[in-house]
Write a structure and sequence with these properties.
The protein is mainly alpha-helical. It has one domain. 57% of the residues lie in helices and 0% in strands. The protein is built from 1 helix and no strands. The longest helix is centred in the N-terminal third of the chain and has 21 residues. The radius of gyration is 13 Å and the shape is rod-shaped. The N and C termini lie far apart (30 Å).
């Protein structure tokens, strides 16, 4: 279970970095997706 969590946590961190770097326009305030970073 611990191994699964560690793997999942790493995947989530990767997604956060990916979105921040590759799709930073999605994080701008007021964007139509409603995502604010």
């Amino acid at each position: 279970m611990e191994k699964l969590y560690a793997s999942y946590n790493g995947h989530v961190e990767f997604l956060i970095v990916y979105v921040r770097e590759a799709h930073h326009e999605m994080l701008k305030e007021g964007h139509k997706t409603g995502v604010v970073g």
